[in-house]
Each structure stands twice: as C-alpha cells, then as structure tokens.
Amino acid sequence: MHSAMTSLDDAVSDVMLELDLPCRRSTLHLAKRIAKVSVAGDLIVLQGPLGAGKTFFVRGMARELGLPAHEPVTSPTFALVQELPTHPPLVHADLFRLKSAAEVADLGLTAAREQAVVVVEWGETYVREMGGDALLIQLTRSPKRAKLSATGPTAKQRLAQVSALLPLPVPARLRQ
Ligand SMILES: Nc1ncnc2c1ncn2[C@@H]1O[C@H](COP(=O)(O)OP(=O)(O)O)[C@@H](O)[C@H]1O
Ligand SMILES: [Mg+2]
C-alpha cells in the first residue's frame, strides 16, 4: 500500500508506522525507544506544526541518551544547531527560519552525522542536503499522533527496530 508520504521523496519506503500519542508519556515512550535504536550516523527528521511536540520529543531522546537532568533542551530556532552532551552526541537543529537548500547544506549536518545522531525540526524538505536516509516522524497537534516512515535503508531498519520495541497492541498499524 502506498502512503501519502511517497510524494515527498521517491525514496520514501511504503513501510509506515502510525501511533496515537494521547498523553505526554506516550510521546516520551516513543522518543526513548527511538533513542535506544539510534546510532551515530542516523538522521531523524521531525515534522509538524508549532505545538505538535517536536522539541518535547527531542528532550525525551536526549534524556534517554544520558543528558543530565539540569541540562535544558530548548528549541534551537535562533541558534539553529546545538550539540547536546549525550552518548552518542545528539545534534539538534531547527530549520524553520532557513530559506534555501544551500543554507541547509552550509550547516554541515551531513558531516555532523559522522559523530552524532542528528535530529532536525522542520527538515522534511531538506533530507538530501543532510545526507539522506532519514527517519521521518510527522507529528500532529490535535489530536496528537505520530507517523513514522523512512527515506532510506538505514532508517527503514530503525523503523523495524522501533516497531519491535513497542509493546503490542499500541501501534495503530504497521503496513508494508
Ligand atoms: N502526546 C502529548 N500529549 C499532550 N501534550 C504533549 C504531548 N507531546 C507533547 N506535548 C506538549 O505539547 C507542548 C508543545 O510541545 P513542543 O515540543 O514545544 O512543540 P513543538 O516543538 O512542535 O512546537 C508541550 O507543552 C509538550 O509538553
Ligand atoms: Mg520546537
């Protein structure tokens, strides 16, 4: 079955995981599971309107990867990119204010992947400029839901690993 995501990028796989996120805890649960399967080199792209929970999601990932409780995770809308002292390091970017693919390419996120997990808010249209093969997480605000898909082989593998970690029957559906 083809998903609506296919139009975004020819490489987007038809495998998609959809989840209801009825409370903050369920979002945290998903973020922690994604963090557990992530390794340096991975690219995770969070999409969704303001208030959907993108930064909250990154915070959950960062705590799972060992960010001390006193270290804040804020939206890097003005800083654009910030590196969090986690294991592996988490490079958190917000591309909302960027206007072109060239500006995104200049941020050096492809190179950052050599040492870190790169997690990007508003990066859906710039996956190529960040080295491709992204795990796409689309969040909706009301009701809160997540749609996960992959634009390459590594991300597709992560998607399979994440769905194996989620307790059944929480996933709304996993289709192929
Ligand atoms: N599943 C959820 N249910 C209820 N509230 C949530 C959920 N996930 C996140 N939130 C809350 O939504 C608000 C907006 O989150 P935020 O991460 O700032 O959004 P964004 O970065 O997408 O603009 C925060 O107050 C956060 O605690
Ligand atoms: Mg945010």
Description:
This protein has 176 residues and is of the alpha/beta class. It has one domain: 3-Layer(aba) Sandwich (Rossmann fold). Helix content is 27%, strand content 23%. It has 5 helices and 8 strands. It has an 8-stranded mixed β-sheet, with helices on one face. It binds adenosine-5'-diphosphate and magnesium ion (MG). Adenosine-5'-diphosphate binds next to helix 1 and helix 2.
Please render the helix and strand layout as text.
Layout lengths: L15 E5 L3 H14 L5 E5 L6 H11 L16 E4 L5 E5 L6 H6 L2 H4 L4 E5 L12 E7 L4 E6 L2 H13 L7 E3 L1
Parallel strand pairs: 2-5, 2-6, 4-5
Antiparallel strand pairs: 1-7, 1-8, 3-4, 6-7
Helix pairs in contact: 1-2, 1-5
Bound molecules: adenosine-5'-diphosphate and magnesium ion.
Q: At CATH's second level, what is the architecture?
A: 3-Layer(aba) Sandwich
Number of domains: 1
The helical percent reads 25-40%
* Contiguous uncertain segments of 5+ residues: 1-11
Overall shape: it is globular
Strand order across the largest sheet: 3-4-5-2-6-7-1-8
According to CATH, the homologous superfamily is P-loop containing nucleotide triphosphate hydrolases
Features:
176 residues, alpha/beta, Rossmann fold, 5 helices, 8 strands, 23% strand, globular, disordered N terminus, binds adenosine-5'-diphosphate, binds magnesium ion
